[in-house]
Write the structure tokens for this entry.
Amino acid sequence: MSNHSVEIRNLDLSFGAVNVLKDLNLDINEGEFLVLLGSSGCGKSTLLNCIAGLLDVTDGQIFIKGKNVTWAEPSDRGIGMVFQSYALYPQMTVEGNLSFGLKNARVPKPEITKRVARAAEILQIEPLLKRKPGALSGGQRQRVAIGRALVRDVDVFLFDEPLSNLDAKLRADLRVELKRLHGQLQNTMIYVTHDQIEAMTLADRIAIMKDGQVMQLDSPANIYNKPRNRYVAGFIGSPAMNFIEGELTGGTFKAGDFEAPLSGYEWSAGAQADGPVTLGLRPEHILTEGQVDDGTLTTDVLADLVEPMGADTLVWSSLAGFPFRFRMDGQAVVKSGDNVRIGIDMARASVFDVTSELRL
Amino acid sequence: MVDVAMSGPRGPKPKKAFSSRNIMLYGILILVSVYYLLPLYVMVVTSLKGMPEIRLGNIFSPPVEITYEPWVKAWSEACTGINCDGLSRGFWNSVQILLPSVVISIAVASVSGYAISNWKFKGSETFFTLLIIGAFIPYQTMLYPIVIMLREVGDFLTPMWSPIEPDVEYALNEVRSFFGAETPIDLPEKVRLMGSLTGLVLVHTAFGMPILTLLFRNYFASIPEELFKAARVDGARFWGIYFQIMLPMALPIFVVAMILQVTGIWNDFLFGVIYTKPETYPMTVQLNNIVNSVQGVKEYNVNMAATLLTGLVPLVIYFASGKLFVRGIAAGAVKG
């Protein structure tokens, strides 16, 4: 057998006439941190619930550790789950919350005490053990929720947007802690989020989902640098990628009076025939001022609107008739109405087919 | 210049105690309270008077000579038909009807509400809709069908309940008399639900189902679904989740259900008069028989005392748990 921790084979799920998941296949490696990323309604939480066994699948199979668990109860699958709303049992103390699963599994008392103590130590919640969830802050509650998965000694951790209910600072702190925890435990973790920063920082691999299908499953770097289609390109990155529609003629991209030779571009399937294409340029890959030298392709654009954000400044303008945003150094002096000379590195651009929207 | 800025209005705006708004508000409240409390006052006052004093006709005047005789008579001496042991018989009948009806109906409805809200099965919504429709059918249309059902179920249960055949009973008594027993034993021959307290308990339980199930379903639906999912991942099953997670969280709604059922069943007259017989009449039916008896002198003081005694149980429940009741209703409406 393979060393896949979780395997999903031809998974279908429909609620009545609505197909939420369509023929989905996914292999998750042992010890991997996989993030399911997508906008709301893409089926990512549904997929997680299917893996957990909280939803009955319409068709297909799910394997965990090489065992077919398609029909198994959630508690028999070797998974632990952490929910967005923490879902702590309000009438039990933290200790009661942590030990509830173990009591149901009829684990002997001394073993329960040992495991609860270990989880509390890892998550630094020992002083809270006698408290009820109502007396805890959001961050503490989420730690307890993670602890509940931790004590069960499971193979796979499932996280359903665990940080979405926390405020921005706490979210950043707990994110780092989760990453540290994964490094420490080396468990397989499947993490659902709609926050791309969380996805990029935590994941070994990201699965971008749309309409119940996986658009791209790859490392964060590849997803960012080489998005497989226009949806992924537009979804990842903030501010979003600029798209300019034009023609490809003889290895040169033309849109209006804007021309760019694609000599440095790495084609995914050899050189392409001429035809209409979409050029994608990330705002942060645009060169400005000192970064532009003689060799780079340059053009002048008019700054419509300037958003200074401290570390950098976002400039709204247009290129070849399409809205165009780019990022400048925060110290640059620009105001709306200025003409700005920008440089474009075509090696970092993305080119998409107009009809199939796939990367060329 | 500074003085002008300092001398302007500052802090809370002063409120007049005797504004026309307050006079209107409290005036109407006092008027309405008097309107509703006056009958209660008349009842209490009359029940403490002797008959000669009542005949003077001043129903609002306080008793000149306070007597508790009417209360004693209402409780233990008033006659209904051939029984002259007062309301006490009806009270104990009502208690015997009330306790099992309340406990069983709440137990069954809370589990059904939990199942319908959390363990959806094929047709669970249809089942729930049918149950709710049941709440809108007038009781009167179901009275006679229930008489037939109680009779038939009794007949159906008879062979299981009373396994001794008549000839076996005869033989048994022969043997007993041979050994000198004087009175033959009389084994029950027939299970009778119609006319028994058990039958009435069944009826009350069934009729409590629609509203109670709705109450519990809505309450459990307001508990976040993730809590239920977490418990399933933690290995708890149907009963485990019910007893360990849901039940401790549902105490307010249990109080609401209890109040609804206690007052509803205690105050019930229709089912009580139809599905029981004189020995097993609940308190309300007996009260009616005392108050509406046409023979002899109308003892207003006894009637008032009897009515107050009958109304005491719901009254105590309201006073004791009014706050909990409001809290429970609010908890059901607002997601906690």
Q: What stands out?
A: DSSP finds 15 helices and no strands in chain B. Chain B has two domains: 17-67, 80-163+190-333.
